[in-house]
Amino acid sequence: MLDLVTGGAGFIGSHLTDRLLSLGRSVRVVDNMEVGKPRNLVQHKDNPKLEVMAADVADPAAMAKAMAGVERVFHLAALADIVPSIVNPEGYFRSNVVGTFVTLQAARAANIKRFVYVASSSCYGIPDSYPTPETSEIRPQYPYALTKWLGECEVMHWAQVYGLPALSLRFFNIYGPRARTSGTYGAVFGVFLAQLLAGKPLTIVGDGEQTRDFTYVSDAVDALICAAESNKVGLCLNVGSDNPVSVNYLAKLLKAPETVHIPKRPGEPDCTFADTSRIKAELGWTSKVPIEDGVQNMLKVIDYWRDAPVWTPDSIAVATKDWFTYLGRQ
Description:
Blueprint: E1 2-6, H1 11-22, E2 26-30, E3 50-53, H2 60-66, E4 72-75, H3 82-87, H4 89-109, E5 114-120, H5 143-162, E6 166-171, E7 174-175, H6 188-198, E8 202-205, E9 211-212, E10 215-216, H7 217-229, E11 235-239, E12 245-246, H8 247-253, E13 259-262, H9 277-283, H10 291-300, H11 313-319, H12 321-327
Parallel strand pairs: 1-2, 1-4, 2-3, 4-5, 5-6, 6-11, 7-10, 8-13
Antiparallel strand pairs: 9-12
Helix pairs in contact: 1-7, 4-5
């Protein structure tokens, strides 16, 4: 009953580790701590059922060792964020594509029983239809989105050719306690909560009327558990809330005393909205946590973001310069 969680010290990975341990599973976490944080697992420091390996998923020897005795693999390890992926595509390819290949090969050699890959809704780019089904055209807008999709292609190919019992879950805008605090994209909650703590205005991109399919982290973990416990193979499944809300509404829920608007960014959709009919039919999963409850849960642990970087319009402009330079050409 040993599960391997790559990226298990990260935001979603640490919540998954919490859940697996609570279910009586033994967990081995592999994390190079480039994105993950040891403090996300400190609550389990005396738990003999948790083993933490500081290792890189692109290291074949490390992953062969990590796979020993493993029954199920949850592959979450990845580099995230748009701008760093534009600046450092090689690093993203190594982490997200080579790392997935190495993990798949190690899992195949170990004859694991289930492999669950965490993909990204960013593969859809700016879709033609909402809610967006899994059959939509794949249109990655930047290297992060491309490398996450290439990782998914590997997983599906290994399921097809080698019979690896694998599923892929395309996550939409996951939020919750421990959400990462670096980066100016994809971590709007971390950005906003750090700004709230510092008494700074919330930086809203564009007019704020863009909507996002914010999905609470416990719902994402439920989906991962459902995928691991199912007998389905070779499917890509959306994971979303069924209820997109605007960024302005999020600021309202956070009771922001002041907001400031910054330029809209090229390559960003005006809406993210998952069609979840397939995952409901295949796994019986559906989201449970309304955005209002999820935001309140985060406000209860707001001190987590006290040491996070506090973004301002000026610092965001500097950090996203390459974004506008490269994606503005499209």
